[in-house]
Amino acid sequence: MKSLQELQAIRDKMKANISTTRDNADAKVRVVVGMATCGIAAGARPVLNAFNEEIAKRGVEGVMVGQTGCIGICQYEPVAEVFEGDTKTTYVKLTPEKVEKIVVEHLIGKTPVTEFTIGAIQK
Amino acid sequence: MFRSHIMVCGGTGCTSSGSKKIIEAFNKEIAAAGINEEVKVIQTGCFGLCALGPIVVVYPEGIFYSMVEEKDVKEIVEEHLVKGRPVTRLIYDETVQGETITSLNDTRFYKKQQRIALRNCGRIDPDNIEEYIAYDGYAALGKALTEMTPDEVIKCVLDSGLRGRGGGGFPTGRKWALGAMNHADQKYVACNADEGDPGAFMDRSILEGDPHAVIEAMAIAGYAIGATKGFVYIRAEYPIAVERLQRAIDQAREYGLLGKNIFGTDFEFDMEIKLGAGAFVCGEETALINSIEGNRGEPKPRPPFPAQKGIFGKPTVLNNVETYANIPQIILNGPEFLNTIGTEKSKGTKVFALGGKINNTGLVEVPMGTTLRTVVEEIGGGIPNGGTFKAAQTGGPSGGCIPASLIDTPIDYDNLVAIGSMMGSGGLIVMDETTCMVDIAKFFLEFTVEESCGKCTPCRVGTKRLLELLDKITSGNGELEDLDKIEKLCNFIKEDSQCGLGQCAPNPVLSTLKYFRDEYVAHVVDKKCPAGVCKDLMQYKIVADKCKGCTACKRACPVGAISGNVKEPHVIDQAKCIKCGACVATCKFGAIIKE
Ligand SMILES: Cc1cc2nc3c(=O)[nH]c(=O)nc-3n(C[C@H](O)[C@H](O)[C@H](O)COP(=O)(O)O)c2cc1C
Ligand code: SF4
Ligand code: SF4
After folding, report:
1. Which chain B residues touch A66 with a CB distance below 8 Å?
2. How far is CA B176 from the centre of its chain?
3. Which of A122, B18, B178, B357 has its CA 20 to 30 A from that of B592?
4. What's the pLDDT score for residue B83?
């Protein structure tokens, strides 16, 4: 180890890799992706991975990315719900590209991406 | 990037209950489910709730699975990891409320704990230096070497109020200052991982769960006092700890965190492990130094103190594992990090190995000043089978007992000494009304008689005579004047033994005599053991009125001590009875009593 900067570089790289997954069990903001058979078939897995990667890449803290069973709206899968205190935003028909926008605008920018929500689709 | 981490406890406790097999099973099932690039299995250190091992925690949700068996793994993988439905029946029941899963930090076991020394245990993979670095590992060493002078490091430790966790409670900063003051061509830093107290496993768990914290702290100590070489003295009976520590040392060398020019400075430091054979006396600092030098592990008179003349006659700073585990956090966050926690004269936290008659046996870390009641009733989850708390023993064979009347005593160094016990290294054994206090005193004394190195007479012969007196009492041959004899002998051993082993050996006897004299008197005068433990002083009897003559007990008795005809009251022949208690459980009518 030659310098503090070198140590810091390892720290940042590792932290991004593990902290998102391991340190947010009690996080206030929770993203859950529906991962029942219907969700998985519709492509929920890449969506879940995209949430993790975008969050780690952008260093977003205090967000837990988890998974849940069937949310009950199978025709709209892949589905993800974002919980913040009492409010819930349900995003539907997700793709990794949509996830990037949600991370940037909603999780970082605090403004839900209305166009991807269930409300917008059902109209 | 893994979306889920499965942390499996790889401490000695969970390993012996099969955690290695569980790890293998997880890897197999995860591969079978095709999610091995999304989910990672990590072997970590002790979570503390050893009574419920093997423990598996699944992140990101932090779901705490307890008593997991190999056959449960498939279900966890298929349900939880593939479909996102946690397997409720395996979750620690305190974290399940109906449909919702509550935070582990809100459970009675964890709520009042504060993990400093154990902070990385259960959180990181101890075999991966980069995980340690991710949680600020080696940043304290970097800070000390590049931003602080050795004197500033010592001052920071001194101001933090940290006292030695190995038993004595000597201020660590003061010890380091003494080490720095004594000039020599070579100095040493040493770590005491002998951990000889029966039932104690705090130091083992730290080394198993967070070995780099100790390495980092020793390097910081080396910088502070001007030493370039460290030794960790650890008992060979701790194979997992030895293995992980060695791997950690190798990794630290590989990353240039041990060796020359650390952080581009001209500071160099390296260390090696010295295995001990596991004698209790080798935990005493001068005996430990003898043993490291390759001599017999016998204590030497002090002074000179190790800080003056230690290993190979050179100034040596010796600290306990847990003491070191506090250091990186103090250097990184400043003295206030520690001195704002605890009581006036005992700062920070203390790790205890909770054992005996308590539900949550395991490892707990609480702020100094936490009451014994909190530890026993809340964190420990109370006494099993509806028993009542009678006393707790701290300080192991050198300590004493704390009776129920003092359960609200805030635990710190000075309070424990004031009530006739001591902090010791952190063993905490809980006793209920089925424990005989004379028997407990005898248990610890047998240990010291066995472990006395034999160098000085008061300890070698005195403890033996003391044990004989206790034997006399528990076998029903004691006389009242024996109690005075015991007290005199105790004081003599205390005053005239050379090292701490002998000086403290009478403590368990003195403290039980102080708080439970009645119990001694019952043994001596009434020839009764109130707890029904001392076999020579109790009998099994059949109450004729209650006995239906079912013959169940007669058949259960292994030595044929019970006789009687069908439908007539049975009797136990006391001459034949070996007091095994086998008959008691067989009687459906509660006719067999112990008195
Ligand atoms: C009989 C005896 C056994 C001891 N065993 C240990 C031990 O197992 N671990 C330990 O750290 N200190 C033990 N000590 C205390 C050490 O002598 C020494 O005080 C301690 O390691 C210093 O470290 P500290 O200041 O960080 O507590 C023992 C002392 C005596 C008298
Ligand atoms: S007090 Fe006991 S253990 Fe210590 S030196 Fe004397 S004989 Fe040995
Ligand atoms: S088991 Fe109980 S009731 Fe039956 S013979 Fe023995 S003492 Fe009597």
Report:
1. 60-61, 84
2. 26
3. B357
4. 84
* Chain B residues whose beta carbon lies within 8 Å of the beta carbon of residue A10: 130, 133-134
As for the ipTM of the complex, it is 0.89
Q: How much is the average pLDDT of B392-407?
A: 94
Residues B236, B231: Cα–Cα separation, whole Å? 15
CATH superfamily of B129-339: NADH-ubiquinone oxidoreductase 51kDa subunit (3.40.50.11540)
pLDDT tens-place string over residues B536-583: 998 899 999 999 999 999 999 999 999 999 999 999 999 999 999 899
Q: How far apart are CA B309 and CA B235, in angstroms?
A: 23
Domain boundaries, chain B: 4-106, 129-339, 349-432, 437-526, 539-594
Rounded to 5°, the CA angle B151-B154-B159 comes to 120
pLDDT of B413 strictly over 80: yes
B146/A contact by beta carbon, under 8 A = yes
Q: What angle do CA B486, B490, B495 make, to 5 degrees?
A: 155
User: What is the homologous superfamily of the domain B4-106 according to CATH?
Assistant: Glutaredoxin (3.40.30.10)
**Contact flag B60-A7 (C-beta cutoff 8 Å):** no
From residue B411, give the alpha-carbon distance in Å to each of B202, B471, B595. Answer: 17, 32, 36
Q: Give the global pTM.
A: 0.93
Of B60, B105, B130, the CB nearest to A65: B60
pLDDT above 90: percentage of residues in chain B: 90
3.50.50.60, 3.10.20.600, 3.40.50.300, 3.90.1640.10: CATH of B349-432 = 3.10.20.600
Question: For an interface test with A, which of B61, B76, B121 has the most A Cβ atoms less than 10 Å from its Cβ?
Answer: B61
B101: part of which helix (H) or strand (E)?
strand B100-101
Could you tell me the sign of the dihedral formed by the alpha carbons of B51, B52, B56, B57, in that order? negative
State the CATH class of domain A27-122: alpha beta
**CB contact (8 A) between residue A26 and residue B38:** no
- The CATH code of domain B539-594 reads 3.30.70.20
Helix or strand run (H / E) with residue B207: helix B202-209
Would you say residue B251 has pLDDT above 70? yes
In terms of C-beta distances under 8 Å and separation of at least 24 residues, what long-range contacts does B472-477 make, across chains too?
B473/B438, B473/B520, B473/B523, B473/B524, B474/B436, B474/B438, B474/B439, B474/B442, B474/B523, B474/B529, B474/B534, B474/B536, B474/B537, B475/B534, B475/B536, B475/B537, B476/B523, B476/B527, B476/B534, B476/B536, B476/B537
3-state SS, chain A, equals CCCHHHHHHHHHHHHHHHHHHHCCCCCCEEEEEECCHHHHHHCHHHHHHHHHHHHHHCCCCCEEEEEECCCCCHHHCCCEEEEECCEEEEECCCCHHHHHHHHHHHHHCCCCCHHHEHHHHHC
- The pLDDT value given to residue B103: 87
